[in-house]
Amino acid sequence: MDQAAAAKLEGGASGHFLDLAALRRMPLVTDPFPHIIVPGFIEGPARAALSQDFPEIQAPGSFAVGDLRIGPVFRRFLAALEGPGMRDAIAEKFGIDLDGRPTMVTVRGAARAADGRIHTDTSTKLITVLIYMNEIWEAEGGRLRLLRSPDNLDDVVAEVPPAAGTLLAFRVTPNSWHGHAPVTGPRRVVQLNWVTSDAVVRRERLRHGIATRVKRLFSFTRPRDA
Q1: From CA 74, how far away is CA 53, in angstroms rounded?
Q2: How many Cβ atoms from other residues are within 10 Å of residue 50's Cβ?
Q3: For an engineered disulfide with 35, which of 45, 153, 170, 187 has Cβ 3.0 to 4.6 Å away?
Q4: From residue 83, how far is each of 49, 68, 149, 225 by CA, in Å?
């Protein structure tokens, strides 16, 4: 961790990490479902520090924060992400009351070929926020596409390259279809959701915990190259 960069972020105030003013300035797109894309939402100095402090994740899939080793800068970033400033900015942008709604954060560090199939998020999620942490992205695959239909990856409303610091947020609706072309390798994403109840958070933490233990078991039993 670069000490000078970390020092700039000391304290964890949302303004040190998140460009909430840029989020508020960006107009909401409502067709075919409400969404917003904010390049540079994580500002330069913060991006560099967060890149160094990003959790080490080599297995594909989503990991709950509690199942990862989190460094101090990344922990302060998560606190800002789940803080009242971010909540109020998202609530205002989407015209939704998020007071009292619990949050849930998961982190991805690697993609597999099976990822990216077209889907909508579960109805227990109210808002999905994706923040990308990849310093360079040259692959054609892995660019999230917002779609008009559930069965055509080329029926594109918008495509979001997973470049460092870019935010995508959308209201979870029955038609909030999204997916991406297959890609394999490092792909860093932080996902924040506001959900309907604490019961959803408990259930998802249990599910992710079981999945993490299974992944670790397979990592120990998988044959190694000589």
Answers
A1: 6
A2: 24
A3: 170
A4: 20, 20, 34, 45
